[in-house]
Amino acid sequence: MTADIAEAARVLSDATDVTLLAHVNPDADALGSALALGLVLHRRGVAVRVSFGAPDEVPETLRDLDVAGLLVPAAEVPAAPPVLVALDTGSVGRLGPLADRVSTAGVVVVLDHHVSNPRFGHVNVVDDEAEATAVVVLRLLDELGVELDEPVARCIYAGLVTDTRSFRHASSSTHEVAARLLAAGVDAEAVSRPLMDSHPFGYLGMLAKVLGRACLERDAAGGLGLVHAVVTLEDAAGLRPEEVESVVDLVRTASEAEVAAVLKELRPSHWSVSLRAVSRVDVREVAQLLGGGGHRLAAGFTATGPADRVLADLRTALTRTTTP
Ligand code: AMP
Ligand code: MN
Ligand code: MN
C-alpha cells in the first residue's frame, strides 16, 4: 500500500495532463475525491479535467465543490488521456460510457476502497479498510506534500461525511482526519446540510407516496427480514436524483428488517437498486450475485424488467446468501 501510494504520487508529480473520473451517478465520495485531487494538480499547473460517464448533469449538491471549474461533460474527455485516475470506482464497468478510456489511457491510476476492486489500473491504491475513497486521496495528498486548505479539505470532508453516514462508521484515526479537515477551515454543518438534510418541499409528497407503498417481508433474508420500496419515474418527476437517493435512508429505519432495498427507476423498466444492511447480512455478496457490487452494509445493482421480478430475484439472492 505504501509503495502503491508512492508510485501514484510519482506518476502524478510527473504528469502534465490528468483526467480524473468518478463512477456513474457520482456521489460525494467519488466527485469530492476527484475534485480534491484535481484542484491540487490544477494549482500545480497540470491540465486537469474531472468527469463521469452518466448522467449529463452534475448533481446540484456537488457543484459548489468545483471551485476551479474542472468539471467537463463526458463528451469532452479525450479519447486517449495520457494519465487517467479512476476514483471510488469498484470495477471498470462503473465508469459507464467512459469505461473504454481504461484501455486507451497511457497510465491508469485507481484510487478506491471497494473490497472487490479487481485492481484494473497500472497503479492501484485500493484500501478496503478505508471508510471512503476520500481517505485514500488524503493519504496521497500527504505523500505529495500538499498543505490542506479549505476548498480541498471541503471536498474530502464531503466524501467522508457521506460514506461514513456522519462518522457512524469511522475509526478513531478517521475522526482524527475529520479534525484535520475542520482545522483547515471546513464548516461541517454548511457542507453536510445540503448533502444530507435539505430537500425541496416536493420531496415530502414523493416520500408520502413511496413510503406509503413500502412492504415489510419478515420471512425474507433467511428470516432476518426485508423492507423494500419502489420509486417510479412518475414518483420522482420534477425532483433531483438527490431526493431519490435519500429514500433508502428512511426505508432502512424499519427495525423489523435486517435488509432494506429501494428500486429506483432510471428509464421505463430499468432500475438501479440500493441495498442496505444493519449488520448481519453482507449485501455486497447479494448485489454481486445480481451483477452489482459495493460494500458489506451498502451495495447496489442494476436490473431490467417489471419491479416484481427484480424483487423476486432479490429474494432468491438473499436466501442464497443467508442460508448456511
Ligand atoms: P447506492 O445505493 O447507489 O448509494 O450504492 C451503494 C454502494 O453500492 C455504492 O457505494 C457502490 O459501491 C455500490 N453500487 C451501487 N450500484 C452499483 C452497481 N450497479 N454496480 C456495482 N456497485 C454498485
Ligand atoms: Mn461512491
Ligand atoms: Mn466511496
TrEMBL record:
GO terms for molecular function: nucleic acid binding. Residues 236-309 form the DHHA1 domain. Gene3D superfamilies: 3.10.310.30, inorganic pyrophosphatase (n-terminal core). Residues 18-159 form the DDH domain. InterPro entries: DDH_dom, DHH_sf, DHHA1_dom, Oligoribo/pAp-PDE_c-di-AMP_PDE. This is Bifunctional oligoribonuclease/PAP phosphatase NrnA. The lineage of its organism: Bacteria, Bacillati, Actinomycetota, Actinomycetes, Pseudonocardiales.
